[in-house]
Amino acid sequence: MPEFHNHRRLAAILAADLAGYSRLMSEDEAGTLAALKAHRSGLIDPVIGRHRGRIVKVMGDGLLAEFASVVGAVQCGAEIQRDMAARNAGKKCPMNFRIGVHVGDVIVEGDDLYGDGVNIAARLEGIADPGGICISRQAYDQVKKQLSLDYRSLGVQQLKNIPEPVEVFSIRGDGLAATDDRQEIRYCRAPDGVRLAYAISGHGPPLVKTANWLNHLQYDWESPAWRHILRGLSRDHTLIRYDARGNGLSDWDVPHLSLDAWVSDIEAVVDAAGVDRFPLLGISQGCAISVAYAVRHPERVSHLILYGGFAHGANRPNSPLREKWKAVATLMRSEWGTDSPAFRQMFTLKFIPDATKEQVDAFNELQRRSTSGECASRYMEAVIDLDVIDLLSRVTAPTLVMHTRGDLVIPFSAGRRMAADIQNSRFVALQGNNHLFQEGEPACERFFEELKFFLK
Questions:
Q1: Which of 306, 434, 447, 248 is nearest to 359 (CA)?
Q2: Residues sharing a CB contact under 8 Å with residue 163, sequence separation 6 or more, in sequence order
């Protein structure tokens, strides 16, 4: 047998396991093992590697990893839990991990580790909330000034089989996000009394995003279909966005859904947020609303960014799509909110035809959560009535128009026409078929490059 020479060293240890593993296995053994394997290979192992960690051992549903620094260990744990929350969004049987992190003395024997450093990390994992992290006082002292997470003291805990009490801190929920990755949700009222929810995230100069089809401030922030866009917009700006009347966290049962009503929503939100002059970003039908706002308030819009939009809806006398979308709006009333995603998936596969199954599932769930069948139908009827063609020539703000070439929801030609009719505008064609570009696409990187250059 090979001879190992034991020695001691200080190490940062992360212990993780799957909460409710026995129950999940009893309900669906094959499915649980397949999902666990997918999470390990697609998320957990790569994240540990990115943070310079080493997996020491795997024990069924759990693992033990060693890191060069405790900052790296806690960063790794927070990233895993944030990404798992997004993966779990909309799932009937979510999988939640518990994580413990400690920095302490370990005994090295070959590739394995033993000692109190390992034992304490494992016991901390055992008391962590599903989806959360518990760290020791020793770890907290080293990361509190380095990582701007939301630490909550659990006081001194007597951990199982650990002789001395350990002071413990918990990180969970939105507290797992770094400051730049958090959002604050607030409320205001439109002139007609409708309650509107809006969110503020990031830091830097303001950037206002107009609402579009469909939004949900909290779910979008976590969804793999939207989070890359929202986090990207928050990176260099204070992003202000909102749920328009009729969907999301804003009032659903509202008297009016129209261009004028949606423009009044922007007016109410930017006044409540206290911003005077700002770039305005419109996506999809939010482009028409952004154009109308920019024409009404040229003194407040410094730059106009229009992505994937159109100047007029399908409800025009010569439009071949007029009757089709009216029929779809009628079907929405009875089919939208059903447990089966089949009807909603028709929209999803047009919006993001090249998306992964995870992104498709998340977008299906977004539409269900965002509004009722009645609201969705009224929303659609209002969208197909939008028409701002006569306003395009009156836009005075510098304007950037972007559109993906293979967009199945809004034709590429609609974006080009908007750019052609707006003075002082620039048009950028993006590669891809998704109406809403997804993370990792060339269109995603190009979008943020062009946005940064335009707003410089």
A1: 434
A2: none
Closest by CA to 275, choosing from 235, 302, 248, is 302
**DSSP string computed for 311-326:** SB-S-STT-TTHHHHH
CB atoms within 10 A of CB 439: 17
Q: Which two tokens stand for residue 393?
A: 């020539």
Tens place of pLDDT for every residue, the chain, 456 residues? 344 456 888 899 999 999 999 999 998 999 999 999 999 998 899 999 989 899 999 988 999 999 989 999 999 999 899 888 878 876 777 899 999 999 998 888 888 888 888 999 999 999 999 999 999 999 999 998 888 788 999 999 999 889 999 999 999 877 787 655 678 899 999 999 999 999 999 888 999 999 998 899 988 988 888 988 998 899 889 999 999 999 999 999 898 899 999 999 999 999 999 999 999 999 999 999 999 999 999 999 999 999 999 998 866 666 666 666 667 777 777 777 666 777 788 888 889 999 888 888 888 888 888 888 888 888 888 888 899 999 999 999 999 999 999 999 899 999 999 999 999 899 999 999 999 999 889 999 999 999 999 998
Token pair 């328009």 is found at 244
Distance between CA atoms of residues 385 and 261, nearest Å: 13
* Sheet architecture: strand order including 183-189: 183-189, 195-202, 238-243, 206-209, 278-283, 301-307, 399-404, 425-430
Q: 0.85 exceeded by the pTM? A: no
Q: CA dist 305 to 146, 243, 294, 320, Å? A: 35, 19, 11, 28
